[in-house]
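Subject: Sanity check before I submit

Could someone independently write out the structure tokens for this chain? I want to compare against mine line by line before I put it in a report. The sequence has 271 residues.
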Amino acid sequence: MLAMYRSNIRADRASLVNKLIKLPGIKVCLEATGIYHFDLAIALHDAGIPVMVVNPKASHNFAKALMKNSKTDAVDANTLAEHVERMDFVAWTRPSNQTLVLRGFARRIDALTSQKAAAKNHLHALSATQETPKALLRDAKLAISQLEKRIDILADEAMALIDQHPELQRIFELLTGIKGIAQTSAIALMGELLLLPHNLTHREWVKFAGLDPKAFESGKSVHKKMRLSKAGNRHIRSALYMPALSAKQHDPHVRAYFQQETFASRLRRHA
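---
Independent answer below. Compare away.
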């Protein structure tokens, strides 16, 4: 397969699909690699070839279980081939085109927001001394202003897309009806969650976001503090962070739950 697939461009993807589709009973297993696996997964799916996309951590641990110490393209390809032969085949669900566009908007807004935070920190550092030339302060403020305008433009584009599709609009209204979730958080969450299969349980949703608890116990003496696994989609965790802080302050149920957990944690520490 690697020999047939030279680079991640449309022509080579089409060439690969044309060769694979001639093989009877073919199944393809891909490792999720940021956004770079998406176009190939879509091309395979749209051609009617069953495709499975696995978490890189799962394939890495599978390779360790097989005692494979080397890491090359050929070794990785053989590992994925063995993975799809031995493990249950879970077919990848193709997202709709509008969902992919919305995710693109959401992730770009998130990236620009991170740049704005860095620019504000830089401005704060420049403002800490009287020796900083006023021209530098003006330039730093201009950078922040430009980032804010770009974020607003992309948010308007995302909202225009949502308004064009009644189902997206319904989901947006449901999300913004939750205390703590406003427009930016709703766009970010929709951009990630709508790519997931619709039949996931609430536990699977939590695990996919990496918000499931990670226990570490061994015998009677080793009992480490339980933490979040963070072995899931970091964009979902990032999108939920500020809404969670807001809900802790303004939603009485969330605030009560937070206070109860804080009190229980203190009791465990002093037990």
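---
OP: Matches mine. For the report I'm noting this point. The two ends are 57 Å apart (CA to CA).
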